[in-house]
Write a structure and sequence with these properties.
The protein contains two helices and six strands, in the order E-E-E-H-E-H-E-E. The chain has 127 residues and is of the alpha+beta class. The protein has one domain: RutC-like (60s Ribosomal Protein L30, Chain: A), CATH 3.30.1330.40. Helix 1 runs parallel beside helix 2.
Amino acid sequence: MAISFVSTNQAPAAIGPYSQAVKAGSFLFASGQIPLRPDGTLVEGDIVEQTHQVFANIKGVLAEAGLTLSDVVKATVFIKDMNEFGRLNEVYGEYFGDHKPARSTVEVARLPRDVQVEIEVIAYLGE
């Protein structure tokens, strides 16, 4: 199976020893995105503002691989406060609409840069 790495300036550069995404066979595994702008500055706003930036980053990584949100088959959401789930879910629904990939949502004690949300996705590249 061929493996290749995806890198784009449409999302923040990796802040550690990992890739923005990895293509493996028919799938793209995108690393978790936090609300950093591509220039590395942090979106300090509430969960709604932060989630919009996370999706902008995800869309940038997917676009570099020739994909869109409609190619996502699985998402994992890490949220700092489950009391914010409803607000996050509203924004999430704006981006996926009728396309409903499988999803897990987990409350965590802490995220990088003390952000409120991180989302990673798996997308299907096709055959």
